[in-house]
Amino acid sequence: MTSALVMDRAAVEAAVSPERAVEAVREAFVAHARGAWSMPPKVYVTNYPAGDFRAMPALGAGHALLKWITSFPGNPARGLPTVTGIVLVSDASTGELQAVLDAASVTALRTGAAAVLAAETLGRADAETAAVVGAGVNGRAAARTFLARGRSVALWDVDVSRAREVAAALGCTVAGSREEALAADLLVTVTPGHEVLIADGMLRAGQHVSLMGADGPGKAEVAGAELDRARLFCDDWEQASHGGELAHAVEAGLVSEADVTALGAVLAGTAPGRADDEEITMFDSTGLAIQDLAIALAALDGADQASLSRLEL
Ligand SMILES: NC(=O)c1ccc[n+]([C@@H]2O[C@H](COP(=O)([O-])OP(=O)(O)OC[C@H]3O[C@@H](n4cnc5c(N)ncnc54)[C@H](O)[C@@H]3O)[C@@H](O)[C@H]2O)c1
Questions:
Q1: CA contacts within 13 A on the Cβ side of 57
Q2: If you count DSSP H runs as helices and E runs as strands, how many of each does the chain have, helices first?
Q3: Preceding peptide of 81 cis, ω within 30°
Q4: How far apart are CA 100 and CA 14, in angstroms?
Q5: What integer pLDDT is reported at residue 2 of this predicted model?
Q6: Over the stretch 260-275, which tens digit does the pLDDT of each residue have?
Q7: pLDDT tens figures, 180-211
Q8: What's the mean per-residue pLDDT of the chain?
């Protein structure tokens, strides 16, 4: 009989701080860039316009992971979360299932961590202002991570009451306007990606944007022409070229792999990051299973395992 640890949302959040999440995700990007961790591209099972399911496997540090997770943008109107699912962690040498974790909390921790890690790595060294546009589950996680890293952050959301509520809960500010938020030195966007937030010509020299919301086919937060003005970075070329911000430009032959640097290569020191203070840097995040593996292992490591319930199979 197999017995697996069960970690619900509260257990995951108690076990992994946003600071720990940033370090875990940094290590995962580096391990993946060096070929020590592997990850087939995620598989989308689409049921648009309602939403989609994603199956995301990864292998690393003696463990295998599968995340089965949803994105149903219309769910909040029904009182349901946009993102739900589970993470399975197995022993990579015996195949034994070791743990089942809540996927939404793992996802929020790793998404906030990647957004801020990219901003810290690619933003200007003298960046002062930071903003998060989209104050939902994952935008909140990005704001919480900025705060945990000692940086003030302004929030903006099309639902102003939501931005106010999240800002009050986290202890950050609400941006005076959408334009003010979009002008931040370090900008993170985490909206559903159904409407372009950053129009052509809107970004200033020296800005950094972590584009987190458009993580799948048909989504975009930035106008295609604005890609031309920026140095482009992504989490994983295989995923980013097939869904998200870059996919249209890749399809049209306007962007190729040579134009886009993987964040992991920058973190591993094998590719350059920002070249000068004038560059606009853009990080296209599609969300990686190696990030989930990093957070799941950090959660198992940080948990009081004796207090967790077990699933007998
Ligand atoms: N890149 C990644 O790794 C990653 C990880 C998780 C989620 N996502 C994606 O991020 C997006 C948001 O996910 P979530 O779980 O936070 O959703 P959510 O529904 O909890 O939050 C979305 C928020 O965006 C706001 N919003 C909608 N349109 C807006 C606009 N035009 N301007 C400003 N705010 C706007 C909504 O009011 C809401 O507060 C989804 O598309 C999801 O698929 C990406």
A1: 7
A2: 11, 15
A3: no
A4: 16
A5: 81
A6: 999 999 999 999 999 9
A7: 999 999 999 999 888 999 999 999 999 999 99
A8: 96
Q: Indicate if ligand 1 lies below 6 Å from the C-beta of 213.
A: yes
The residue whose CB lies within 8 Å of the most ligand 1 atoms, and thus the one to mutate among 29, 106, 158, 233, is: 158
CA dist 195 to 77, 154, 214, 255, Å?
18, 21, 10, 21
Q: Which whole number is the average pLDDT over 48-64?
A: 96
For residue 113, give the nearest of 243, 213, 212, 214 by alpha carbon. Answer: 212
User: With the CA atoms of 25, 21, 15 and 62 taken in that order, what torsion angle do they form, in degrees rounded to the nearest 10?
Assistant: 10
For residue 175, the CA-to-ligand 1 centroid distance in Å is 17
Nearest to 138 by CA among 164, 106, 160, 161: 106
Catalytic residue among 20, 42, 67, 151: 67
Written as one letter, the residue type at 76 is: P
CA-only gyration radius of the chain, Å = 18
**Quick one: DSSP state of residue 204?**
P
Tokens of 256: 């190729």
Q: pLDDT for 221-258, tens place per residue?
A: 999 899 999 999 999 999 999 888 999 899 999 999 99
Q: Closest residue (by CA) to atom 10 of ligand 1?
A: 213
Question: Which is more confidently placed, 11 or 82?
Answer: 11
User: Which two three-digit tokens encode residue 53?
Assistant: 């399911």
Is 42 a residue of the active site? Answer: no
